[in-house]
Design brief:
The complex is a heterodimer of chains A (about 260) and B (about 80). Helix content of chain A is about 35%, strand content about 20%. Chain A has helices at about 5-10, 15, 20-30, 45-50, 85-95, 110-120, 130-145, 175, 190, 195-215, and strands spanning about 35, 55-60, 100-105, 125, 150-155, 160-165, 225-230, 235-240. Chain B is an alpha+beta fold. Chain B has two helices and seven strands. Chain B is globular. Classes of the chains: A alpha/beta (about 260), B alpha+beta (about 80). The complex binds zinc ion (ZN).
């Protein structure tokens, strides 16, 4: 276990006070490796909260640059960072918040090999991307490598979040939820999204991440939460593993 | 003999209904329920479907008394 000095003990004191976390939990967080795919509306609160909580190694992946239209909801960025590479701009902000953590950045679209390698070295993966292509690709790799995947999405006034504990053979995967088909382009680029909605969903992704890293509580695995921000009503759907799922299903594993 | 069909988020505008109730005589697949409720409009790709809050695929059977719900896909981030 790593040693924490007095300033670190003080920095994290409000979560070390929690019996579910304590010093040993904080030490675990300080050694944890989390891969964040997409540093936009969801990735902003996810990265900020995990950095603040002291997750020791954050890897940020996003190919984009900071655009004026991002600032309405991607709260990790500020106006002086317009046109910066997103992951570099985010790293600057995260290190200002917590200089004790390690941040690795990839401001590019990762090749399948590099993505697989990054998944392999991560303890868990958080999908904050904005398109089906990335979501399906990431899911396949996480299923193959049996890594926990926390998936969030938001558009308009509608948010969704689920957890796939792919290290457990009974867990559903993202493909059990969404069949692979042509991309529908339902991303915020085209359709708009209310700013705090990505904060709500992203904050819940970060909460699930801390719980899974520390193995405390009960995760959302096996459930899909759907939020309608216009009424602030949640629907909870039960989600089972699809035995015919071409990615994780037991019936399709013919080899 | 009734079932309840609910539409969520942007589907409400596309379909023109929040909630429908109608009678069925025997079990139908959820895809057949969609056709009954939405006429010629085909089942959109990636749509999420649930019967009594349990996620299902389009071949799932709907029985009398069930609540059927349709949700649009969400991928934005
Ligand atoms: Zn699956």
């Amino acid at each position: 276990m790593i040693h924490m000095d007095d300033t670190q003990l003080l920095r994290y004191s409000r979560q070390i006070l929690l019996p579910q976390i304590d010093i040993s939990g904080q030490q675990q967080l300080c050694q944890a490796r989390v891969l964040i795919i997409g540093v936009g509306g969801l990735g902003s609160p996810v990265a900020l909260y995990l950095a603040a909580a002291g997750v020791g190694y954050l890897t940020l992946v996003d190919f984009d640059q900071v655009d004026l239209t991002n600032l309405q909801r991607q709260i990790i960025y500020t106006t002086d960072q317009l046109n910066y590479d997103k992951t570099h701009a985010a790293k600057e902000k995260l290190h200002a918040l917590n200089p004790t953590i390690n941040i690795i950045t990839y401001n590019e679209k990762l090749t399948a090999e590099t993505l697989a390698m990054q998944v392999k070295i991560a303890d868990l993966i958080i999908d904050c991307s904005d398109n089906f292509v990335t979501r399906f690709q990431l899911n396949k790799i996480c299923v193959a490598q049996r890594k926990p995947l926390i998936s969030g999405a938001a558009v308009g006034f509608e948010g969704q979040i689920s957890v796939f504990l792919l290290n457990q053979t009974t867990s559903p995967c993202y493909h059990c939820l969404y069949e692979e088909a042509k991309d529908t382009d339902e991303s915020c680029n085209q359709t708009g999204v209310i700013a705090p909605l990505v904060g709500i969903i992203g904050s819940m992704q970060a909460t699930e991440a801390i719980k899974i890293l520390l193995n405390i509580g009960k995760s959302l695995c096996g459930k899909l939460l759907i939020l309608n921000a216009l009424t602030l009503q949640w629907r909870t759907l039960k989600l089972n593993q699809d035995p015919n799922c071409p990615v994780c299903g037991t019936l399709s594993l013919t080899c | 003999m009734t079932i309840t069909v609910k539409f969520f988020a942007s589907l409400r505008e596309e379909v023109g209904h929040h909630e429908l109730q109608f009678n069925i005589d025997n079990s139908l697949t959820i895809e057949e329920i969609w056709s009954k409720a939405c006429g010629k409009m085909p089942l959109p790709p990636h749509i999420l479907m649930a019967i009594n809050m349990q996620y299902v695929d389009k071949t799932a059977l709907v029985n009398i008394g069930d609540e059927v719900a349709f949700f649009p896909p969400v991928t934005g981030g």
